[in-house]
Amino acid sequence: MAPVPPDPAQGEAVCAALRGQVEKLGLSLGTEPVWAEAVFEETTDPFSQEVSVLAIWRGKARYGKATFFPDGRVFAEYQVLLPHPEQPERYIDTVQVWGRPPQLRGEAVLADFAA
Asked: Which of 5, 88, 101, 103 lies at a CB distance of 3.0 to 4.6 Å from 10, suitable for a disulfide?
């Protein structure tokens, strides 16, 4: 049985929040991630046995996923892989968002270029 995708409005809110985290840095991913391009899987937490739905973006330039928990929480991460606009020795690896749509918080995950 295929997993039931989350409400499209929640999915669009997650995508917008991910793009918003990138835009805070003065960068853009264009229209990525696109909710309609996500594929869905179910995952079971090994501790709580709760079944969550994963939305996954893969097969293009970037990879990402969003976990929609049964209680309405979401955790999402999406690759950025762009140089940091103010720190030349670093790049933005991913952006993350979490919370309950539409009130999602987030941050960028930075990495250092290899020396």
From this structure: 101
The residue among 99, 58, 62, 73 whose CA lies nearest residue 6 is: 73
Token representation of residue 28: 């853009």
**3-class SS at 17?**
helix
pLDDT single digits (tens) 55-92: 999 978 899 999 999 999 999 999 999 999 999 999 99
The answer to whether the CB of 86 falls within 8 A of the CB of 21 is no
CA distance 44 to 69: 10
Pull the structure tokens for residue 114. 């290899």
The structural domains of the chain, with segments of one domain joined by +, span 8-112
